[in-house]
Design goal:
By secondary structure, the chain is an alpha+beta fold. The protein has a domain at about 5-75 and about 115-150: GIY-YIG endonuclease, CATH 3.40.1440. Helix content is about 25%, strand content about 15%. The protein contains 5 helices and 4 strands; from the N terminus they run αβββαααβα. A 4-stranded antiparallel sheet has the order 1-4-2-3. The protein is globular and about 50 Å long.
Length: about 190
């Protein structure tokens, strides 16, 4: 999967505009950490982030970190025991299906740093949590991460990764996509 990050951010600005939010062109910046990468030391001051982990052409995880979520941004996904849900735990639980047979809990964080690409979409904290949440949801819909929520919550729809503006949106199927019905006034 090749992701055009500039197009992703441009499309998000349009989604924000449709939601009535005006974003400065510099409100969202892209930081790409190729594999192998170092885990971030800190969330930059005055910023929030949506982060993306990519491996072998697939999106593994999309998450967000608000201005007070430094541990989520910097370390939790690299440390199996750090939280209830993190990328290390997801990888370990799925190690057989990913052909990572030798992966251990203890080395899962090192494996992430050595093998995944991390993309940080940094957004001005002044934009607020609703905009950060919108960005996370947009990226999740666009990239359909393998590890998102519980198994029962994961999308079964293959995303449109072509970034073709003429293609239907991810999740829209010609045989079942219908416009919402018009509401009738009561009485």
């Amino acid at each position: 999967m090749v992701i055009d990050l500039d197009a992703l951010v441009t499309d998000f600005r349009e989604v924000a505009r449709l939601a009535g939010i005006s974003l400065r062109a510099s409100a969202v910046t892209i930081q790409r950490l190729s594999s192998p990468h170092k885990q971030p030391a800190a969330l930059p001051a005055g910023k929030c982030a949506v982060y993306i982990f990519l491996w072998k052409g697939q999106c593994l995880k999309v998450g967000k970190a608000g201005p007070k979520s430094h541990a989520r941004y910097t370390s939790q996904h690299y440390n199996y025991a750090s939280s209830q849900s993190n990328l290390s735990k997801s990888l370990f639980a799925s190690r057989e299906s990913l052909a990572l047979h030798e992966l251990s809990e203890a080395e899962s964080g090192s494996w992430i740093k050595a093998n995944t690409e991390r993309v940080n979409l940094l957004i001005d904290a002044a934009c607020g949590m609703p905009v950060l949440t919108l960005l996370e949801a947009f990226v999740q819909c666009r990239l359909s991460p393998r590890f998102e929520g519980f198994e029962s919550q994961r999308s079964k729809v293959t995303p449109n990764l072509s970034l073709n503006p003429d293609a239907p949106p991810a999740g829209a199927r010609s045989n079942n996509f219908r416009a919402p019905a018009k509401r009738r006034r009561a009485g």
